[in-house]
Amino acid sequence: MKQYNQALVNHISVTFWIDVAAIKAWNCLIHQSPRYRGFIFSDTEIETALMVKDIFKLPLCRLKSFLNSFFTLINIPLKYSTDSCIHNAFEDRIS
């Protein structure tokens, strides 16, 4: 029975690999324009968020808390910024 339970746990486990280069590319430090106070979001952040959204079938409103909880859990100092940029990127990619 113990072996069966362990097989079930292993069957539904999820493994993430986060490359050091991806961590470095996560934050974009370039201002979008002088009038805009925010930053451009990196392609890495947008692509990762859309991939996670599709894999786990998450609505955009849950994506931010999922990614931030995940980063906290694995002790990586990243934060997912906002869903508005992902929403715009998502809309652009499906149209």
Keywords:
95 residues; mainly alpha; 5 helices; 60% helix; 0% strand
Write the layout of secondary structure elements.
Elements: H1 2-11, H2 20-26, H3 43-56, H4 60-73, H5 83-94
InterPro entries: Tnp_DDE_dom
Protein name: Mobile element protein
Q: Briefly note the structural class of the backbone.
A: mainly alpha
Low-pLDDT parts are: none
Distance between the termini: 50 Å
Q: Strand tally, please?
A: 0
Number of domains: 1
Q: If you compute it from the alpha carbons, what radius of gyration comes out, rounded to the nearest whole angstrom?
A: 16 Å
How do the SSEs run, as a string of H and E?
Answer: HHHHH
Number of helices: 5
Shape: globular
What does this structure look like?
- This protein is an all-alpha fold and 95 residues long.
- The protein has one domain (16-94).
- It is built from five helices and no strands.
- It has helices at residues 2-11, 20-26, 43-56, 60-73, 83-94.
- The chain is globular, with a radius of gyration of 16 Å.
